Amino acid sequence: MADTEDQVSLAQTLGMLSGELRIMHQSITESMSVIREDLRRADDAHNERLARLEDNIKSQFDGMNIRITGLEKEEKQLAVKVAQISSISGLISAILTTGAVELIKRSF
DSSP per residue over 27-69, as a string? Predict the structure, then answer.
């Protein structure tokens, strides 16, 4: 009779242990699912931040390209103006030199 009671007690203990293990397994499985979802959300948020950063950097580069293009255009315009002023200065110098030569010729 003691063997039967021991076997029943052992069976009950094994049943309780099995139930506890099942509950622990379910809890761990749920925790892993929650962790996976948290990781997915963190990854999505990280990817979104990277995309916004990339867009921000692209817009800054586009703005810089626009400014550089404007400065290059302005530089070309200034080079043309300098060339025009230089040619006018050369013409004035030539006229003054010619006038000075003529004055010197007439004074002798």
Answer: HHHHHHHHHHHHHHHHHHHHHHHHHHHHHHHHHHHHHHHHHHH
Q: Encode pLDDT of 11-50 as tens digits.
A: 899 989 999 999 999 999 999 999 999 999 999 999 999 9
Name the residue among 35, 34, 36, 32 with its Cα closest to residue 24.
32
Tokens 């013409």 correspond to 91
Q: Which two tokens stand for residue 37?
A: 């979802």
The C-alpha atoms of residue 108 and residue 102 are separated, in whole angstroms, by: 10
Dist CA 50 CA 43 (whole Å): 10
Global pTM reads: 0.53
Q: Which of 91, 70, 69, 88 is nearest to 80 (CA)?
A: 88
Using one digit for the tens of pLDDT, what is the confidence trace for 48-74?
999 999 999 999 999 999 999 999 999
> Which tokens sit at 107?
């004074």
Cα–chain center distance at 104: 72
